[in-house]
Design a protein that fits this description.
alpha/beta; two-stranded antiparallel ribbon
Length: about 230
């Protein structure tokens, strides 16, 4: 059996790391080993073969020139750390997957902006409710449509107030909720770089998201093989 690649999974330094455990389980099922990375652990060593930028706090609007008064909860140390991780991934040509906040940060890192819909109560209630799923439409020519084998995902779980607004350099919005909210991005280039607004890691026993984690793990293994 081939050795499992090591995937660095970023997250907050404090709190209960439920998302970390769920992501770790999903990656393990996909044939990869996860290592938790936070601003407190410092920059990762050279054995990391891929990065998952996880969910959590708002991204500070000051980074992308947004309305700082709209932010509810920011973590500047985490913002700085994860932006450095994305820089490292770009230098190494390392595959990256962003989940929720992670997708947003990928866009911001490439010069894009975020929107905030928390003043729209109906819209906010739809997108920040762990117990209410909603469908996503995928662009037919997207990598995600090929991964899922469909242009529609019947149910995804979201929990967010910020969302991708103006795409950054090389970023394509390839997935939308029914209300038009961007739900997925892909970054142009030869290396896997996909961000999904939904929490693909939860619940960990839901097998509908297996295709995404398996495609990501396969991209990591392929990249590893090409650099040996």
């Amino acid at each position: 059996m081939a050795e499992r690649p090591i995937i660095g999974v970023t997250g907050p330094s404090g709190g209960v790391p439920w998302a970390w455990w769920a992501t770790r389980w999903q990656l393990r099922r996909a044939g990869a080993h996860a290592r938790r990375l936070t601003a407190a652990t410092g920059m990762p060593p050279g054995d990391i073969a891929g990065f998952v930028i996880g969910g959590g706090n708002d991204i500070d609007p000051a980074i992308y020139g947004g309305d700082v008064s709209a932010s509810r909860s920011v973590d500047p140390l985490r913002d700085e750390f994860e932006l450095e991780v994305l820089e490292l991934a770009a230098r190494r040509g390392t595959p990256v997957m962003g989940i929720c906040r992670g997708a947003q940060l990928m866009n911001v890192w490439l010069g894009g902006t975020l929107g905030d819909f928390r003043d729209d109560n109906d819209r906010f209630a739809q997108h920040r409710n762990a117990f209410t799923d909603h469908p996503v439409r995928l662009e037919p020519d997207s990598a995600l449509a090929r991964i899922y084998g469909s242009t529609a995902i019947d149910e995804v779980t979201t929990w967010h107030g910020q969302h991708v607004d103006r795409p950054g350099a090389g970023v394509a919005i390839v997935g939308y909720a029914r209300d038009g909210t961007p739900e997925a991005i892909e970054v142009d280039g030869p290396v896997f770089a996909i961000g999904v607004q939904w929490h693909a890691e939860v619940p960990p026993w839901d097998r509908r998201q297996d295709a995404l984690f398996e495609a990501y793990a396969e991209a990591v293994r392929a990249r590893q093989a090409s650099t040996k």
